[in-house]
Amino acid sequence: MKGKNRIKNTMIFTVGLFAITFLQSCNSNTVSNKKVTNESLKTEKITPIVIGTWNFPKAIEAASQVLKNGGSALDAVEQGCRAEEANAENQTVGIGGLPDRDGNVTLDACVMNEKGDYGAVVGVQNIKHVVSLARKVMEDTPHALLSGRGAEQFAESIGFQQEDLLTESSKKAWEEWKIKSEYKPIINIENHDTIGMLAMDVEGNISGACTTSGLAYKMAGRIGDSPVVGAGLFVDNEVGAAVATGLGEEVLKTVGSFLIVELMRQGKSPQEACEEAIKRIVNKPNSNYKDFQVCYIAINKKGEVGSYAIHEWFSYNIYTNGESKNIKSDFYLKP
Ligand code: ASP
Question: Record's InterPro entries (predicted)?
Fold first, then answer.
C-alpha cells in the first residue's frame, strides 16, 4: 500500500507540476503584448505607422510626412488632425463643421501621448485647431480638460487665431434642417466622420488624437465620446491604442477605447478587441444598433492593426512602409 501511495503521490505531484507550468505558459501568452516594451523594441528596427478613421487623404499625408522625417507619433497625429480641421469642405471637423441646432459650431478634441498624458477641450467655438489646443492643455496647464468659454480664453491667451467656423454651405445645410427641425438621436449612418488617428513612431512610441464637430444639429452643450479619455480615445504605450467614431453616446456608455486596450493587454489582437467592443454595444438589452453606426480602429505595440464597425462602409487609412492605403473595415451587420 505504501508503495502504491508513493506512486500515486508522485503522479499527483507530476500532474500538478505540469498544470502549474502549463498555466504559467498560458499566462505569459496572454500578456505577451505587454512584454513588447520600448526596451525590447530598441533592438529591433521599428516601422513607423499611422492609421486614421475614414478616408481623409490630407490627414494621412500630413501625419506620414512627420513620421518619414523621424518625427514623434504625437506630432504626426496632431498634424494629421490639423489638416482636416483646416479643410472647410469637411463638414464634421474644424472649420465648416455642421453646427448645433442653434447654429453654433462647437468643436471637441483630445490627445494622448506615450506617457499616458491626456489633454482635451470641449464645446469650443471660433477656434479651428482644437487638437492643438488640447495638446496645449495637456502640456502647458495643470489640467486635463477645459470646456467652452474657459478653453476659448486659454486659446486666446496663447495666441490661437479666432475665426467664424460656420461656412456658407454649413449654414445653408442648417437652415434647410431648421425648416423641419427634426432632431433624431437615431442617426443616419452617413452623418458622422470624426477623425481619430493613432501612430507609432520610429522610437516605438504610440500616441493618438481625435477631433470633431460632433453630431450635426446636436443639442447645445452636447458632448460626445471623441474628447473623452477611454471613450473616444485611449493610449497605453505598453499595450497599444484605440480610437472611435460614430454615435458617441454608445461609445461613452461602453468606454469603448479603454475596453479595446484592456482586451489587447489580455492577449487579444487589435482586430479581436475591436470586434469584442462592438459586440458589447450590439449585445446590450434592447440595443437599437441597426439604427446607428459605431466604428473602432486599434493598433498594438507590435504595429498590428484592427478595425470593426456595426454597419458596412466604414474604412480607415493606413500609412506604413512608405505606402498609404484606404482599407474597408469588416463589420457586424452582414446583409
Ligand atoms: N463620435 C462623434 C460624436 O459622437 C461623432 C462622429 O464620429 O462623427 O461626437
Answer: Ntn_hydrolases_N (IPR029055), Peptidase_T2 (IPR000246)
Residue type (1 letter), 101: R
The Cα angle at residue 253 between residues 293 and 231, in degrees rounded to 5: 80
Whether the CB of 248 sits within 6 Å of ligand 1: yes
Class of the 45-328 domain?
alpha beta
Full 3-state SS string of 78-121: HHHHHHHHCCCCCCCCCCCCCCCCCCCCCEEEEEECCCCCEEEE
In whole angstroms, give the CA distance from residue 240 to residue 267: 11
| Residue 65, CB-side half-sphere exposure with 13 Å CA sphere | 9
- Would residue 106 show up in a list of annotated catalytic residues for this protein? no
Mutate to test the pocket of ligand 1, among 191, 212, 311 (most ligand atoms within 8 A of CB): 212
Q: What is the pTM of this model?
A: 0.87
Q: Using one digit for the tens of pLDDT, what is the confidence trace for 33-87?
A: 445 666 665 557 899 999 999 999 999 999 999 999 999 999 999 999 999 999 9
Angle between helices 73-85 and 57-68 (to 10 degrees): 150
The phi and psi torsions of 319 (rounded to 5 degrees) equal -120, 125
| Rounded distance from Cα 209 to ligand 1 centre (Å) | 13
